[in-house]
Design a protein that fits this description.
The protein has 362 residues and is α/β, with parallel strands linked by helices. It contains 13 helices and 9 strands. The radius of gyration is 19 Å and the shape is globular.
C-alpha cells in the first residue's frame, strides 16, 4: 500500500522492487501480530493514543507557479512514503509540471507533521479523519487554490481514498475539479499485503489466514480503530457478521462510502457529482491490494460460498447510487483505467505525464 515500494520512475530494478514488496509484506505481518496482541491487552476505555501529539497539521511542498497558477494539482502520497521525498513525490511533481508547463501550474505534495519521519509515521498511525480535516483547512486557506478556482486531486494508494474524502467533505469550502486515484482502496482491503487470493487457484496459506483473521479482529478494537490508519479501511466480507462488525466499528471507510443507512450523506454525493472527471486506476498484477478491484470500487460478495465473487462498482447497491457514481457514470465523467502487466503503483513517467495532461485540461 505504499508508493515507495514499487514505482519504476525511480528506475528501480525488478529484483529491488520484489525485495521492497517483500519488506512491505513482512512489515505488515509484524504490525498485524503486534496489533492483535495490543488490541487484546489494552483497556479500550483507558488507553493512551499513539498519535496523541496535539492537533494534526497539514502543509505542502510546492513547485511551479504558486502565485497565480492556472491549475493547482494536489498529491496525497501512499503509506511508507512522505510528501517531501525528492526521489518519489518530487519526481512526480516535476513530471506534472513538464506536462502542464511551469508557468501554468502549481503542484502541491501534502505533508503531515514537522519532519519526514513524522509525515511517514502519519501514514501508519493516527486518525484519518483528523488528517482529512487538516487538508480541508489547508486548501480552503490556500491562495493558489483560490486563484485557480479549485484544484485537481491526485491520490496514490491509500492516499486515493483519503483524497476522495477531502473532495467529499470540503465540497462546500473548496472546489475539486477532478480526482485521479492510483491503486486506491476505495472499497477497503480484506487481507494484509501478499495474503490475498492471487488468482492462481491456490488458497492463502495457514499463516496468511491467521494474519487476515487477526487483522480483521484487531481492526474492530477501539484501540486500533482510533490509532492505526490501515484499520480504518479494513473491510472484512468473509461473513455477514464480520461485515456488520465493520459497519458498526469502522470510523472512516463506511462513512465516506455512504455505506449503510446510518452513513447516508447527501453532501458527499453532491460533492462527487460535481467533479468534471473522476478517474480510478487499477494495476493488473497488484499484489499489495486485495481485492485489487477495490481500486475500481469493486468488492467481494458478502459471506457465503460465493464470497470470492467480485461485485462490480455498478452492481454494488450499497454505494453506486448513494455515492453518486451513477450520475458520474451516466454522462461519462467516471473513468476506469487498467495498467496492464503492472504491480502496485508501477508505471512510467511518460505515462504519468499523459494522465496529468489529459485530465487536468478537461
Amino acid at each position: 500500500l505504499t508508493a515507495s515500494h514499487a514505482i519504476d520512475y525511480r528506475a528501480t530494478t525488478d529484483a529491488i522492487m520484489h525485495a521492497r514488496r517483500a519488506i512491505a509484506r513482512a512489515t505488515c505481518a509484524v504490525m498485524t501480530i503486534a496489533l492483535a496482541w495490543r488490541a487484546t491487552t489494552v483497556d479500550a476505555r483507558g488507553f493512551a493514543r499513539w498519535s496523541d501529539a496535539g492537533p494534526v497539521v497539514a502543509s505542502s511542498v510546492d513547485v511551479g507557479n504558486c502565485d497565480a497558477p492556472a491549475h493547482v494539482v494536489v498529491f496525497w502520497h501512499g503509506m511508507g512514503d512522505y510528501g517531501a521525498d525528492r526521489n518519489s513525490m518530487g519526481v512526480l511533481q516535476r513530471a506534472a509540471l513538464d506536462a502542464l508547463g511551469e508557468e501554468n501550474a502549481c503542484v502541491k505534495s501534502l505533508t503531515f507533521g514537522s519532519s519526514a519521519s513524522r509525515d511517514r509515521w502519519a501514514g501508519y498511525v493516527g486518525r484519518v479523519n483528523d488528517q482529512v480535516d487538516a487538508v480541508c483547512a489547508l486548501l480552503a486557506a490556500d491562495g493558489a487554490v483560490r486563484h485557480a478556482q479549485g484544484y485537481h486531486g491526485y491520490g496514490f494508494s491509500q492516499g486515493g481514498q483519503f483524497m476522495r474524502a477531502v473532495v467529499e467533505r470540503c465540497g462546500s469550502r473548496v472546489r475539486a475539479k477532478t480526482l485521479v486515484t492510483f491503486g486506491a482502496q476505495h472499497m477497503g482491503v480484506e487481507s494484509v499485503p501478499g495474503c490475498g487470493d492471487d488468482g492462481d487457484g491456490d488458497a492463502p496459506t495457514i499463516a496468511c489466514r491467521w494474519l487476515n483473521r487477526a487483522a480483521s479482529s484487531a481492526s474492530a478494537s477501539a484501540w486500533a480503530r482510533w490509532n492505526v490508519v490501515q484499520a480504518q479501511y479494513f473491510r472484512d466480507t468473509r461473513t455477514h457478521a464480520s461485515y456488520q462488525r465493520y459497519l458498526e466499528t469502522n470510523i472512516f471507510l463506511p462513512e465516506i462510502n455512504n455505506e449503510g443507512q446510518a452513513n447516508e450523506n447527501v453532501e458527499y454525493r453532491n460533492a462527487l457529482m460535481s467533479l468534471e472527471k473522476f478517474v480510478c486506476i487499477m494495476f493488473e498484477n497488484d499484489d499489495m491490494v486485495f481485492p485489487k478491484e477495490s481500486s475500481w470500487f469493486g468488492s467481494h460478495v458478502i459471506g457465503g460460498s460465493v464470497n470470492q465473487t467480485i461485485v462490480p462498482y455498478d452492481q454494488n447497491e450499497s454505494i453506486y447510487a448513494s455515492l453518486g457514481l451513477d450520475a458520474l457514470d451516466a454522462d461519462g465523467r467516471l473513468e476506469f483505467i487498467l495498467v496492464p502487466d503492472a504491480h502496485h503503483l508501477e508505471f512510467t513517467l511518460d505515462w504519468f505525464r499523459g494522465i496529468v495532461k489529459k485530465y487536468v485540461s478537461v
